[in-house]
Amino acid sequence: MLHKIINLTVRDVRFPTSVEQHGSDAMHTDPDYSAAYVVLDTDRGLRGFGLTFTLGKGTEIVVCAVEALAALVVGKSLQEIVSDFRGFYRLLTSDGQMRWLGPEKGVTHLATAAVLNAVWDLWARSEGKPLWKLLVDMVSHRKFRSKVCVQDVITISCSVCVSSGSRDQMQKEGYPAYTTSCAWLGYPDQQLKQLCTDALKSGWTKFKVKVGADLEDDIRRCRLIRQMIGPNNTLMIDANQRWDVAEAISWVSRLSEFKPLWIEEPTSPDDILGHAAISKALAPLGIGVATGEQCHNRVMFKQFLQASALQFVQIDSCRLGSVNENLAVLLMAHKFQVPVCPHAGGVGLCELVQHLILFDYICVSASLDSRMCEYVDHLHKHFTSPVVIQDAHYMPPKDPGYSCEMLEASVQKHQYPEGDVWKLHMNK
Ligand SMILES: C[C@H](O)[C@@H](O)[C@@H](O)[C@H](O)C(=O)O
Ligand SMILES: [Mg+2]
User: Fold this and answer.
1) Which helix (H) or strand (E) holds 335?
2) Alpha-carbon gap, residue 168 to 174, rounded angstroms
């Protein structure tokens, strides 16, 4: 445990996913999946790897923010950090000069996530366990309260951490997943059909379709997918914040014939009461509201839950302040009995969030009812411990850590702007 952190490096790693429209939606029409990629070196040679997900040019700003936080981490030992993790979380989020940029939102919060993800990775590696198991063991050994929880959560954690889902079941069957990879907005119908055919063959039963730019296109695409997947498989739709409240209600009502389970991010992610109004209007149609990938922090989630403004909580491993803040949201969702269906549409997000949802099942919710974790099939080959999907389920990771170490060769190739991939791209 006495691993002293002696260095932090952060690199701007970008993948040109926009070229083939992977990841495209109604608001992000040219997304290059990217990461501010953090490595922590310790005096005893152990390293921690972390990242936060961003898109293209935005990465350079996040990288600057991580550099600004580095001095708060370098020089500390892992022991010092985890024995007062709450204090360390506050140190990062409450710096007297930097908190003005947030607090706990936007670029500084994404940077906090990147740094803390690397600390959690380091901790799990130092214990020789995958992160989900580190968390599960902590709860079973009751170390949880003193070490991890954010103050506001301590009280509820004591009362809700009584559930227990079967670890064995997860090891055998895995955690149910849905796929977004068949129907990004920029894919032509032919591609959509082909991908959907392939996905059905591989055992996928839950599909998310991007909507929101053009109603006639949405009707055609949803009809196509619904016809292909049949009435019994699950369809979700995602508008990535494209509409105002009234427009969201009328647009989704027009798509209701395709029986989507949820409409995701129908409007501004900050409009809690707007989401509540949409939830209320769509409930009679049997359509829920899902959101979270751009929900700033646990305080916003608290209000979404209090206002009955969402029916599916989409935690994000890189938007919130790492495991610390995500645990708070898992516990609150459990208290309000709202299912958690994590967001994972980005580079590295599947690798990270699988750990959190396994913990949620084993220690918090103990339920798979209306629950599933997003999966996108891009870029996993760049990770040293990529996700394992079997029969549309996430199989629990076995390697020690938080699964977000990238292959050094991939990092070098994709580093912006000097990596070979970008040199080639710019010369085109
Ligand atoms: C730009 C990204 O691909 C988003 O479209 C993606 O995160 C999406 O909202 C999702 O739910 O996966
Ligand atoms: Mg989404």
Assistant:
1) helix 322-335
2) 9
Query: Is 210 part of the annotated catalytic residue set?
Result: yes
| Closest residue CA from atom 6 of ligand 1 | 345
Give the tens place of pLDDT for each residue, 136-188.
998 877 655 544 444 444 444 444 554 677 889 999 999 999 999 999 999 99
0.95 surpassed by complex ipTM = yes
> What 3-state class would DSSP assign to 186?
coil
Which candidate in 210, 355, 378, 382 is catalytic?
A: 210
343 flagged as catalytic: yes
Q: Render pLDDT for 337-376 as a digit per residue (tens, 0 to 9).
A: 999 999 999 999 999 999 999 999 999 999 999 999 999 9
Minimal CA–CA distance to 34: which of 68, 57, 50, 66? 57
Domains assigned to the chain: 5-129 (3.30.390.10), 158-408 (3.20.20.120)
Whole-angstrom Cα distance, residue 32 to residue 30?
A: 7
Question: Which residue of 24, 185, 210, 240 sits with most ligand 1 atoms within 8 Å of its CB, as the best mutation to test the pocket?
Answer: 240
